[in-house]
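Aim 2, interim progress: modelling of the adenosine-5'-diphosphate-bound target.
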Amino acid sequence: MKHRRLMDIDVKEKKVLVRVDFNVPMDGGTVTDDTRIRAALPTIEYLLKEGSAVILLSHLGRPRGQVVEELRLDPVAQRLSDLLEMEIKKTDSVRGPEVQEAVDELVYGEVLLLENTRFEKGETENDSELAREWASLGDVFVNDAFGSAHRAHCSNVGLGEKLPAVAGFLLEEELSALGSLARGEVEHPYMAIMGGAKVSDKIGVIEALLEKVDTLLLAGGMANTFLKAKGWEMGDSLLEKDHVSSAQEIMKRAEEMGKEIILPSDLLIAREISEESEKEVIADELIPAGWRGVDIGPATIARFKEELDKAKTVFWNGPLGVFEVDAFARGTMEVAQHMAEIQAWTVIGGGDSVAAVEKASVAAKIRHISTGGGAALEFLEKGTLPGLEILREE
Ligand code: ADP
Ligand code: MG
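Predicted structure of the complex, ligand included:
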């Protein structure tokens, strides 16, 4: 699928509305991780250099259509101002006279950030009146918010339908990195490592990836359901009984296709989720009652590394254990470090997965780290997203 691109249009002396993803982690009024703000800089800097007036829209958190003081974008504007080394204008409202006035006064080469789009109920409802009002503020729409592209909201889809709409540089980078994975147009062996909490969140993407990859490595909470399907006793492990049959079907499908699904052969089990918990490694397919699987065991770590050594392309989503607890982080940390060392095209997606590679201090050695969690997975599953459809070339 082809998308209209920012590079292909003239933005000189245009008012350009840009949907960015500034949904950053905050703590008491300060931005604690500005990765997403930095990721939007190439598009913003390009527009400024080309002589546009830039109007930015983003959501932050889930204010559910109301003004929530802690979710105002002022700290984001401040950080953006520091990064761009220039003044950033900001409105306290999302629509209405204050916004109109700020846009009227905006000069080419300036940046204006509107208040949190989700303070307006119409944002998540994709309200057409709100779309019309926003569209009237500018000449062109740029979608650079990959992390929100799986939502059909007003500031990406509704607004994008009402103006000439193109993909920003971040969005394009995500599409080129994830697009080749989704289509399977990559160097083989192609492997996916899937972990995380629940299998129910990820059945669709596992099924889609299975069609493309050579090997699927499963771990984390979601692998418990597969182990159960193979006859393991899982004790008090996180388990989705309703999905044991889907796990069975996926394994059957893999066998029919001659693809390998590699499950943990040993697990670290613990009595409770805490640093001090009693813990041990088991490999006998039997977790006693009162114990739960919290990480992959050493034999599984070794096996995963061995597989990764053969890979030319790797996609990883989902921690391999309860990595937030240091005592249960070894599998995730060791596999992340190994992934940073291999000679392969490596891609990571997923909020907690990105946090895990950062915890392992290897983020810089991963070829592509997606800024979208849910969006990356849905894109791999479906090959498109609502926020991309509006950019489709006729
Ligand atoms: P991502 O955000 O990268 O898509 P998920 O949200 O699916 O990842 O999963 C992350 C969560 O999975 C982490 O909070 C982690 O503690 C949890 N998890 C991983 N392995 C297990 C396990 N064996 N039991 C319980 N929770 C687990
Ligand atoms: Mg998560």
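The longest strand covers residues 15-19. The chain has two domains: 6-171, 179-381.
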